[in-house]
TrEMBL record:
Entry keywords, A to Z: Membrane, Transmembrane, Transmembrane helix
Transmembrane segments: 35-56
This protein's name: Uncharacterized protein
Top-level taxon in the UniProt lineage: Bacteria
C-alpha cells in the first residue's frame, strides 16, 4: 500500500515538473499535454495489470 501511494505521489510530482518544462520550452498546449499524461497513465495501468496477472498465475503453480 505504501509503495502505491509513493508511486502516485511520484507520478504527480513528475507530471508537475514535465508540465512546466514542456509548456515553457516546447510551448505545448494544455490539451495536448493532458492527452499525453492520460495516455501515460493508461499505459502504466495496463502494464501493472499484466504484471499482476502474470504474478498471480506464477504463484498458483
Amino acid at each position: 500500500m505504501f509503495y502505491t501511494l509513493l508511486y502516485i505521489a511520484g507520478i504527480l510530482i513528475i507530471f508537475q515538473v514535465l508540465d512546466k518544462i514542456l509548456v515553457n520550452i516546447f510551448e505545448i498546449s494544455k490539451k495536448e499535454l493532458n492527452f499525453m499524461f492520460l495516455m501515460y497513465l493508461l499505459i502504466t495501468m495496463i502494464a501493472f495489470l499484466i504484471i499482476a496477472i502474470i504474478t498471480i498465475k506464477k504463484m498458483k503453480k
